[in-house]
């Protein structure tokens, strides 16, 4: 069953965007022609200037360009419409729209679980194990989404290529605990301090920039070795 939906607001936005794209593409082609610049390959030109028909000279410069009336008319005619295809499902149009409207978001969640969280395959042997694994995935997805939001909305985006790079930078930090002694957290250094500030975390006392190594140098027992005398050439 194929269901076609129409959205008046979406049509208005798409028609406006078509006019904007046509103007941007026309101005860009005029600038390239005025400067006598060479064009990219045919695939790139077709993708970047999809509403125009561009003819080339022998030296790969623009000979002429004209708007593609058929393509523009088709784009305007289809604006505001979207179709939904179902098979073997007994639903009304509104029920089908409600059931499938979150499909894109769901696919993004699955992709995030398979890539960022590394859970492509789940080795579960029981229903209880599967339920527990899904709970862990759900909680980790919330944390992962929050990390990605902070990475995008702060200056961390200029320092790290992805949210995974942020996590990799913090991987070296350890909490060390010995029997009968207080816990010790390894020091925050370099970009780790920037990450803590971006997330609003307070660096634990003793692990900040004023950290001093606890390693004590052991003094050697006895007299120091006598240095050898070296004769210099006259």
Give your account of this protein's structure:
This protein has 234 residues and is mainly alpha-helical. It has 9 helices and 6 strands; from the N terminus they run βααββαβαααααββα. Helix 1 runs antiparallel to helix 3. It is flat and about 95 Å long. The N and C termini lie far apart (103 Å).
Task: Give a short synopsis of this structure.
The chain has 234 residues and is mainly alpha-helical. Helices cover 48% and strands 11% of the residues.
Question: How do the helices and strands line up, and which of them pair or pack?
Answer:
Elements: E1 2-6, H1 8-34, H2 42-48, E2 52-56, E3 62-67, H3 69-78, E4 81-85, H4 93-100, H5 103-114, H6 127-153, H7 156-159, H8 163-170, E5 175-176, E6 184-185, H9 191-199
Antiparallel strand pairs: 1-4, 2-3, 5-6
Helix pairs in contact: 1-3
């Amino acid at each position: 069953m194929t269901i076609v939906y129409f959205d008046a607001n979406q049509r208005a936005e798409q028609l406006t965007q078509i006019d904007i794209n046509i103007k941007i593409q026309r101005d860009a082609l005029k600038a390239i022609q005025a400067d006598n610049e060479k064009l990219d390959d045919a695939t790139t030109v077709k993708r970047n200037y999809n509403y125009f028909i561009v003819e080339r000279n022998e030296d790969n410069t623009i000979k002429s360009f004209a708007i593609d009336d058929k393509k523009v008319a088709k784009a305007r005619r289809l604006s505001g419409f979207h179709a939904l295809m179902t098979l073997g499902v007994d639903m009304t149009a509104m029920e089908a729209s409600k059931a499938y409207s979150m499909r894109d978001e769901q696919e993004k969640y699955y992709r995030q679980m398979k890539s960022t969280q590394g859970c492509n395959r789940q080795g579960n042997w029981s229903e209880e194990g599967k339920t527990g694994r899904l709970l862990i995935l759900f909680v980790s997805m919330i944390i992962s989404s929050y990390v990605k939001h902070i990475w995008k909305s702060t200056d961390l985006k200029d320092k790290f290529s992805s949210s995974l790079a942020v996590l990799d930078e913090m991987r070296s930090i350890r909490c060390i605990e010995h029997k009968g002694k207080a816990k010790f957290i390894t020091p925050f250094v370099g970009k780790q301090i920037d990450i803590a500030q971006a997330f609003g975390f307070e660096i634990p006392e003793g692990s900040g920039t004023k950290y001093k190594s606890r390693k004590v140098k052991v003094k050697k027992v006895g007299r120091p070795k006598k240095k050898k005398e070296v004769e210099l050439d006259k």
